[in-house]
Amino acid sequence: MYEVDYEQEIVKYLPFVRRVVNRIEIKSTDYDKDDLFNIGVIGLMDALKKFDVTKKVSFESYAYIRIRGAIIDEIRKTSRVSRTRMGHLDQFYKAKEKIEREKMTSATDKEICEELGIDGKQLSKIHETVHYLANISLEDTIFTSQGESLELKDVVEDTQMIPFDELLLDDEKKKALRTCVDKLSEREQIILNLYYVEELTLKEIAEVLEVSIPRVSQLHGKILIKLKNMIEEELA
């Protein structure tokens, strides 16, 4: 814990808490931004109490995990993706796996739509579901049955210091994720960079790419599905 005035530190980092809250784009009828901010402050207080200055990690990196973790834990208690949407996602993965097993190549959107008997609009909804799930738990979205904490920004960001949350991911998975991110198209890497490194909102990214906000969430979800598939192959 910092050897400084505790209350002053809380006040100092309140804007940081607000920034974290504004980055969490999860629709919930149970909480508004002020509610999430108050929960985030509790996470900040926890971070100030438990931060170990001997660790090779900045306080901001550590506090981000604690603040976001506190908010997400609270949201998880009341916010759930409907069984219908999760069912559609499960069907999507099964169809994708079936096509790729038969063809021995990556399944296209058209092939998946034909296999499931859906149109492009319905497929986009599935991509949006993945985007939503990634806001709740990115690691659970792109890693199969893995529970390590992970921030994608630490993989796409060029940095000399290994962030605290990346230390929680074993070397094999770090390498696999970096390798797969490097294989993405330039546009896909730009979207990940804008979202996870530059920390732009969906609205801001939409303005940069000159597309709609729903389209950004669909693209983000689609990229994560692609990453998930690539990582599974890399770690197989």
UniProtKB/TrEMBL annotation:
Pfam families: Sigma70_r2 (PF04542), Sigma70_r4 (PF04545)
Top-rank taxon: Bacteria
Transcription regulation among keywords: yes
InterPro entries recorded: RNA_pol_sigma-70_dom, RNA_pol_sigma70, RNA_pol_sigma70_r2, RNA_pol_sigma70_r4, RNA_pol_sigma_FliA_WhiG, RNA_pol_sigma_r2, RNA_pol_sigma_r3/r4-like
Key word DNA-binding present: yes
Location of the RNA polymerase sigma-70 domain: 201-227
A molecular-function term among this protein's GO annotations: sigma factor activity
GO biological process: DNA-templated transcription initiation
Alphabetically ordered keywords of this record: DNA-binding, Sigma factor, Transcription, Transcription regulation
Annotated NCBIfam families: FliA_WhiG, sigma70-ECF
Entry protein name: FliA/WhiG family RNA polymerase sigma factor
